[in-house]
Specification:
It is elongated, with a radius of gyration of 12 Å. Helix content is 0%, strand content 36%. It is built from no helices and 4 strands. Strand 1 and strand 2 form a beta hairpin. By secondary structure, it is mainly β.
Length: 64
C-alpha cells in the first residue's frame, strides 16, 4: 500500500492457501509471509515478486 494515497501497489500472489502471518524486514526491502500451504515466502517489496520460498515444513506455518 502507498501510505499517502492508500492505493494498493502490488498483489502478492503465490501461496496455495491462507496466509497466517506477514512480517517486514528491518531494511524495508523485503517482507515474509507464512501460509497454511506449509511454506514461507520472502518478497521484494518494490516489485511484489517472490525472491525465495522455504519449503519442507510438515504442516501449516502460522507465525514468523
Amino acid at each position: 500500500w502507498d501510505a499517502t494515497t492508500g492505493e494498493a501497489l502490488h498483489t502478492l500472489e503465490g501461496h496455495g492457501d491462507a496466509v497466517w502471518s506477514v512480517a517486514c524486514g528491518p531494511d524495508g526491502r523485503h517482507s515474509a509471509s507464512a501460509s497454511e500451504d506449509a511454506t514461507v515466502r520472502v518478497w521484494d517489496i518494490a516489485t511484489g515478486k517472490v525472491v525465495h520460498t522455504y519449503e519442507g515444513h510438515e504442516d501449516v506455518v502460522n507465525a514468523l
